[in-house]
Amino acid sequence: MMELPLDDAISLDDTIAFHRALVLGGASIIEMNCVRKHFSAVKGGRLALAAGAVQTLSLLVSDVPPTHLDALGSGPTVGDSTTVAECRAVLARYGLMERFPAPVRRFFASVELPETPKPGDLNARICKLVDSDEMAEAARIRAESLGFHAVIDNSCDDWSYDAAANYMLKRLRELRREHLRACLISAGEVTVRVDAAGANARGGRNQHFALYMATQLCDEDGPVAVLSAGSDGVDGNSDAAGAIVDEHTINCDATRASALRALAEFDSSSWLSARGATVVTGATGHNLRDLRILLADSAD
Hints:
By secondary structure, the protein is an alpha/beta fold. It has 2 domains: 12-129, Rossmann fold (3-Layer(aba) Sandwich); 132-296, glycerate kinase, domain 1 (3-Layer(aba) Sandwich). It contains 10 helices and 8 strands. The chain has a 6-stranded mixed β-sheet with strand order 3-4-8-5-6-7, with helices on both faces. A two-stranded parallel ribbon has the order 1-2. Helix 2 packs across helix 4 (84-93) and helix 7 packs across helix 8.
């Protein structure tokens, strides 16, 4: 929730445009934060560096992968494990430079782009309080108390939304061959690369994932329900945390056609809210990444 560009020639409007382009570019949270750290005078350990010899203590409620705690909030008080070379690779991988304002492009194109402080450079301690693994485990315990065979599979963390949905649906179908009541849980985030078609649309990665999943479910999968939601209560630029769909969400060719059009236009929230499928919680006051739950029950 704070920012200060390393280059004082970069304005507030340039900074806003930079972050917006980065969020919509399709990169994972780890990749985005790698770029943010090298853009910033306060992230990537630079806030702790400004404290000099004073030891810092960071208490972390983590919304990043558990093995990448230096990505949390772009790590203002944590030594950075990424490098300038990795930052440049992310920019090239997603074609981000052409999306940035000219002052930001000049900054990243500089041969003198400074490296961030590394863990050994800082007098810093960190203490993780809670993360997405513990959120997923709480969901598993609750599902088992309701009589489901519950499995946590975070393999698709940071995958594209369609690859993640296809993988999870395949896993759920496999579980159903052995268990009448199955629950597949996945914590983390999926990625959605938004192009010009979605400039004025409403939605976020959870609703996009849920709507795509609805197009893949068939009658033979039922009874089945799929939840995808952000633990902070916010999904993209919508007022929803996410959505719940099932095998009846798309029930005819016309509905399918409109759903595919909404996906192409990145307008998942409008489509899902019109059908009462969105989950609206309001801001929850915490953020442990996203949670996806696939529930399959017995047909009896």
